[in-house]
Amino acid sequence: MIGPGVYVHFAFCKSKCLYCDFNSRPGTRSEQIAYLDALLAEIERTPSLDAATVYFGGGTPTVFAPRELARVLHAVTARFVIAPGAEITLEANPGTVDEASLRALRKAGFNRLSLGVQSLRDAELALLGRAHDASQARQAVASARAAGFDNLSLDLIRGLPGQKLEHWQETLEAAIALEPDHISAYGLSLEDGTPLEEKVERGELPRPRGSGSARWVDWTVRRLKRAGYRRYEISNYARPGRESRHNLNYWRNGEYAGIGAGAWSYRAGVRSRNVADPCEYTRLALGGEELVCEAEKLGREQALGEAIMLGLRLTEGIRTDELARRYGIDPRQRYADVIDRLVKGRLLVDEQGALRLTSKGLLVQNAVAVEFLQ
Fold first, then answer.
1. Closest Cα partner for 98 from 132, 127, 70, 123?
2. Own/partner long-range contacts of 219-226 (Cβ < 8 Å, ≥24 apart)
3. Quick one: fold of 300-373?
4. Rounded CA separation 23/279 (Å)
5. Which fold has domain 5-251?
6. Which of 60, 176, 218, 239 has the most CB atoms around it within 10 Å of its CB?
7. Rg of the chain on CA atoms, in Å
8. In this predicted model, what pLDDT tens digit does every residue of 281-307 receive, in sequence order?
9. 300-373 has the same fold as 5-251
10. Which residues in 80-112 are b (16+ Cβ under 10 Å) and which e?
11. Cβ(178)–Cβ(141) under 8 Å?
């Protein structure tokens, strides 16, 4: 296990992308300032933990000034016990950072940068409603390197409406040429109620096709492997030693403290979520009121099922002996029929004490996960 993490959610962005259903929105400057004070208030009253990672996500944290983000990071490091050499990640979007701001953020203590590039084709960026173009994305990468970020991740999305495989290949080749340390390559998910989904339903845009097919995925895996990136999770690829330690803790069902509007926490077997609306969150936090709107104590069997579900997202799979020690239930006995059925269906491999999904199984991971949660 890597160790617990701290996640801080910044619920504001420059503009709302057409595909996004994350808990974020554009906000006024006064709302943003009050939200920062609310984060600081929540951090101060959150029970401490020994943290191996810190992650500032959103939204777009970099709509806030470097000095403001530094202030929140200082509060986190004062409240929690941050391990030496901890991975401290900041999400950013091109167009919200430059070399000067990134130098200030690097000096403040952030040592990993995750850039929301999504595409390196201008027409696709416009379709997604992104607030940057491909040139700004390339400049953001150059600025990050010049500012001293030697751990850089790029987020990309494939399977856009009307996108052909060769268009995705063009974006991925361009991303590889930027030489990031980590690439997240997600298939587009059309979320209910988003403007992009509504355009597709009205027939204004073609329904996305192909991004989850074996052809698209196999090409992506092989091309990134040839470029030196190992697939370690369904959608994530890294150079050796540059896997996202913060997300690995999630996928291994580790503990984490969530700060901010809509942030989830998982501590001492209890999973909980803060109120989602940023203004309501701010009011409650500044008033010293309860922030948690839902909480659930997981039983051993439920926790085991979730650990298997999350762990099978990793290409290394799960060690059943480790899970048996952790939860006091032998997964090979509890899920014997499920395991046998998935192995016979060539969705799961059982070897050397580990269970891992095959390439075919990774394509239908959500369906496999349901088998362990019923």
1. 132
2. 219/165, 219/169, 220/158, 220/168, 220/172, 220/185, 221/359, 223/169, 223/172, 223/173, 223/176, 224/172, 224/176, 224/183, 224/185
3. Arc Repressor Mutant, subunit A (1.10.10)
4. 12
5. TIM Barrel (3.20.20)
6. 60
7. 21
8. 999 999 999 999 999 999 999 999 999
9. no
10. bebeeebbbbbbbbbbbbeeebbbbbbebbbbb
11. yes
| pTM: predicted TM-score of the whole model, two decimal places | 0.94
116, with CB counted inside 10 A (0-12, 13-18, 19+), is: buried
Which of 227, 204, 207, 208 lies closest to 216, judged by CA? Answer: 208
Tokens (6 digits) for 10: 């910044």
Q: For the residues 177-193, what does the mean pLDDT come to?
A: 92
| Residue 76 CB burial class (10 angstroms; 0-12, 13-18, ≥19) | buried
- Please, are residues 118 and 157 in contact by the beta-carbon 8 Å criterion? yes
Distance, in Å, from the CA atom of 138 to the CA atom of 136, rounded to the nearest integer, reads: 5
Residue 201 has pLDDT above 90, yes or no: no
How buried is residue 165: exposed, middle or buried, by Cβ count under 10 Å (0-12/13-18/19+)? Answer: middle
Contact 253, 267 (CB under 8 A): no
Q: The tokens 């019923």 sit on which residue?
A: 374
Residues 6+ apart with CB under 8 A from 250: 5, 256, 310
Cα(174)–Cα(168) distance, integer angstroms: 10
Q: What percentage of the chain carries pLDDT values higher than 90?
A: 82
C-beta separation of 332 from 358 below 8 A: no
The two beta strands, 112-118 and 81-92, are parallel
Q: Identity (one letter) of the amino acid at 50? A: D
Q: Are 88 and 122 in contact, with CB atoms under 8 Å apart? A: no
Domain locations in the chain as residue ranges: 5-251, 300-373
Q: Which amino acid is at 186?
A: Y
